[in-house]
Amino acid sequence: MLGKLLKYELIATGRRIPLLYGVLLAVSLLFGIIIGSGASDNIVVGRITTLLYVMAAVTLGLLTLIVLIQRFYKNLLGNEGYLMFTLPAGPGAHVASKIISAAIWIFLAGITGLMALSIMLYFISHGEAYWFWSWGGIGDMFRTVTSVPGGVLLIIEIIVLVILVCAEAATKVYAAIAIGHQWSGHRALGAVLAYVGISIIESIVATPLQNLFDDNELTYVLYSTTASEAMHAAQTFVLALIALVGALLAIYWFVTWILVKKRLNLQ
């Protein structure tokens, strides 16, 4: 049933989100051409152009987030929840479909952002930045990393980490919404405060780990020893991040699931 829920979730969100990504790429192309043509040599024009591009990118990112939040809230916690929970699927499947769908769109948003930046750089540099965004450049980096023993494993670990980060970011938002939904009134405010509180707790937990990275011999190993030792240290560090993000993901999923299952109030 999870597969069917995910399919329809992707179809529902796919009606709007890809359009936002297309707009970002079009805006990147437009501003890249403007800047590359020299029209922005004027300081005022250059600043206005840069500001408009940043505003467009931020706005499109926020719109993507709003779409994902609306889908979760209306579909599970709003009036649509009466219909959704009549389906032969438990709360866990419903929550999981939302998280997986959101993680996919967040991942694609990151890819789109890199593509948009690459388009901008291409036109600004008049084609000299072709390596940055070409598949040839990506292939060169891939071959360089994989030439070191353990490089393939490191790439796999990084991919897993990126996927987990996307899922964790979505689940964190959904957990905050589920917590805010417990309020009898001002649920949006409750969700915002819950998100802020979760973020503060996260920062407190992450501080010792940050100090470990800054002060421990791991930093020395990464920058001062042989390639194989640096690769091993990098793998260890990425694995530690995977464990941390995975733990946070599990906690947020459990909070969201238990509140939807035990404390759901659709009134």
List keywords for this structure.
267 residues; mainly alpha; 84% helix
- What does the main sheet amount to? none
Q: Summarize the helix and strand pattern as letters.
A: HHHHHHHHHHH
Which stretches of 5+ consecutive residues score pLDDT under 50? none
First and last CA, distance: 26 Å
Question: What's the rounded overall pLDDT mean?
Answer: 78
Task: State the secondary-structure class.
Answer: mainly alpha
Shape: globular
| Overall tally of structural domains | 2
Report the sheet-strand fraction. Answer: under 5%
Oligomer: single chain
Question: Can you describe this structure?
Answer:
By secondary structure, the chain is mainly alpha-helical. It folds into two domains: 1-133; 136-267, no CATH class. 84% of the residues lie in helices and 0% in strands. The mean pLDDT is 78.
Write the layout of secondary structure elements.
Blueprint: H1 2-13, H2 17-36, H3 43-77, H4 81-84, H5 91-124, H6 130-133, H7 135-146, H8 151-180, H9 187-215, H10 217-224, H11 227-262
Helix pairs in contact: 1-5, 2-3, 2-5, 3-5, 3-8, 5-8, 5-11, 8-9, 8-11, 10-11
Quick description:
The chain has 267 residues and is an all-alpha fold. It has eleven helices and no strands. 84% of the residues lie in helices and 0% in strands.
